[in-house]
Fold this sequence. Notes:
CATH architecture of the largest domain: 3-Layer(aba) Sandwich
Strand content: 15-25%
CATH superfamily of the largest domain: Periplasmic binding protein-like II
Amino acid sequence: MVKLMKAAVLVAAFGCLYPTQALAASTDVNKPVMSGQVTISAASSLTDAFIALGKEFRKLHKDLKVRFNFGSSSTLVAQIQSGAPSDILAAADLISIEKLVAMGNVVVMPRVFARNTMMIAVKPGNPMSVKSVQDLTNLDVVSLCGKTVPCGVYSASVLARSGVVLSESKVTRGVDAKSALGAVISGDADAALIYRTDVLAAKKTVTGVAIPRSINVVAMYGIVPIRGAHNLDAAKAFIDFVLSEQGWKILKSFGFEHP
Length: 259
């Protein structure tokens, strides 16, 4: 609850400093062609969607190289704080961006560009007949994200809202959303509590079990340019593209919800 309140304060604070329309008003995906390279650090759950976004963005800026660095949001923040080169951070939560704000790595308004929810992923055909979060207690191994990464925090909230306690002896943890889901695909886990978009992206390799909204959480994805970006113009152009109507259509096609 405290983390959610902090995230709300972050949005409110930036909203006071920068009008909501400020970045959106400048959204023009038909800007002059960019050059050089733009480095985008993005949450692993954005992998497929951002690769598609990057492909379409480069059609507008053919002389620009787009480099992605995917990982858990908390890992990406640590990398940026340590000086790793990055022009943009696209995180699966706002708390991660708040950490960069506190360190002075971010000086402009972050924008929520998409939302996500949690889902249960089980083996194809759902052989263990998992129908609810409560059924996870009947399984031998459940895959979750690391405790400190966004998908791990969201999973903990879903479990708490469901009144479910899983023994750590029955839990395997992935470093990020993709690796947590991979445990089910490889057969190392009976189920995973993971982002809905990752379940959709896995297609026939897993079966998804919906979680009621009453106990589910909403993951807010924020995007922001990094202070000292090597290619700030290209960073702003990519963010504008993500926020554009074309960008939203691509995100929607991968199962993300409108912010």
